[in-house]
Hints:
Strand content: 25-35%
Strand order of the largest sheet: 1-4-3-2-5-6
CATH superfamily of the largest domain: HUPs
CATH class of the largest domain: Alpha Beta
Number of strands: 14
Number of helices: 9
Shape: elongated
Structural class: alpha/beta
Helix content: 25-40%
Order of helices and strands: EEHEHEHHEHEEEHHEHEEEEEH
Number of domains: 2
Radius of gyration: 22 Å
Amino acid sequence: MRYIQSVEEFELEKSSAVTLGKFDGVHLGHQKLLSIVKEKAREHNLLAVMFTFDRLPLSICPQRHQHFLTTNSERKNVVEQLGLDALVEYPFTEELMNTEPEDFIKNIIVGKLKAKFVVVGTDYRFGKGRAGDYNTLLEKGPKYGLETIVVEKERYQDREISSTYVREELASGHMETVNVLLGRPYSVRGIVCPGNKLGRELNIPTMNIYPTASKLLPPNGVYASITTLDGVEYYGVSNLGTKPTVNSEPGVGLETHLFNYNDDAYAKRIEVRLMHYLRQEMKFESVDLLKKQMESDVAFAKSMFLL
């Protein structure tokens, strides 16, 4: 997959079918758009392309903190696995924000992306003041040789699937629902860092990673998890939080114990998929009580995985 990042000037090698949006999470609704893009690209010998933004600058959208269901690198990985030909992460500048809708169609969708088909949801907005929508594309597109395909929202439990829906379920720790909406398990990636080695002393060795500051996280607590390490999947249990019993973490970390792994994993990259929320993070009066609870968590997680 070609990855075009943070550049305004680029050229695709041939015409494309494209979908546009923020695509935070790349959930099932987004995947419906992508499947139609791939179908049109295959039928007409076009490139299948996703167009999104590298990030919303704080100078334009001045939230104190911005958190996302997927980081840029995670989104890239998901899109690549879904089989697209190109992912464009375009700079979200003030100039772009003030582009008139028809100019966006002419200069970006047709001019830069060479689009013959554009696939969008019913809520897609673009251009200055978000004045452009799918009706604008349907009206103006034929003038530039552009065919627009408008896609109704996917639904789950009688509600439209959206990034907002995923965020709400994630904030509640409803990982089963989150994973259904995403079409894959919610995951956190990172490099294994040295910890305080307390887990090894308790005969429950763990590996620690630290989520990037922009990553949206579920509630602090203990989760049944599946970790990919060196291409192999391991069942385990993970604690997301600050380790209040030993008071050793200045920020939020993810500490994972794998059931069938005893080697040194320091400096290795792992992906931890959070499958089930078991309980909230707790502070224990002693390390012995912490160990008993960790052993109970391990037993409970193993029973959930039918191990």
